[in-house]
Every structure is written in structure tokens, then in C-alpha cells.
């Protein structure tokens, strides 16, 4: 099902992704960060649904269906570099900051930060071209939103 998208993500000179594929790449990256600690909680899945639903104006059911597709895509995809490259090529800097903020929401969704998730975030932010200070501010915004 995702073979064509995965092929395009792994192409040495990938083209800009259509919106539907960029959605899958972003969702798969959200799933990857949620799975980074080896525990993919229901709260993390619900947070991904909310992020996808809000970002793409989807109903609860459509967001959950997109997340399910993203879970399959994440399991089949080769590495994080391809997702980040596809997202970096597909969206503006401000939108990439929003991606980092969304990733932090998923990291913080289960109430605990873990070494694997932190390590993946330290790797993903620069791959998306987001500076460390902007990533830190995105984490603070996500944490504040989670508390309210």
C-alpha cells in the first residue's frame, strides 16, 4: 500500500510530496516518536489523533483512520531521515516548528520523558532544519498546552 511513497522517500533526489503523502510522512513521524520508548500508549495515540485532526481539519474517525495508516507506514519505512527530509521539503520553517511542537506533544502525552524520545527529538529537530532554541520554545509551548 505504501510501497510507492516509501520508494519516493528513499529516492536519492526526492521530489516534493503531494499533501496526502506529506500527511502520511508527518503522521508516521509522530507514531515513530511515540514508539521510540518501546511503549505506545493509548494517550499517545489519542494525542496523535488530535494533532492530525486539528492540523488537517479531520473528524475524529478520519484522524484515527489516518493514524492507523501512519502506524503501518511507520512500521514499513526504513528510517527517520526520510520522513524528516520529506517534511522539510514539503513545508515552511514555521510549519516545521509546528511539527516539532506536535512531536513534543506526543513525547509529553504519557506524562514522562524518556531517553529514547529525547534522543530522537535531538536528532529530528536539526534534520527538519529547526534550531535548538526554536525546538526548546516549541517544547515549552507544548508543555504549557498539556497543563491547561
Structure summarized in a few sentences:
The chain contains 8 helices and no strands. By secondary structure, it is mainly alpha-helical.
What does this protein structure show overall?
With 148 residues, the protein is mainly α. Helix content is 77%, strand content 0%. It is built from eight helices and no strands. It starts with a helix and ends with a helix. The model has no long low-confidence stretch (mean pLDDT 86).
What are its keywords?
single chain, 148 residues, globular, TerB-like
CATH homologous superfamily?
TerB-like
Supply the number of helical segments. 8
Question: What is the residue-mean pLDDT, rounded to a whole number?
Answer: 86
The H-and-E topology, N to C, reads as HHHHHHHH
Distance between the termini: 39 Å
Q: Provide the β-strand percentage band.
A: under 5%
Instruction: Please tell me the total number of domains.
Output: 1
Q: Would you identify the regions where 5 or more consecutive residues have pLDDT less than 50?
A: none
Largest sheet: none
Radius of gyration: 14 Å
Organism: Limimaricola soesokkakensis
InterPro entries: DjlA_N, TerB-like
Protein name: Putative tellurite resistance protein B-like protein
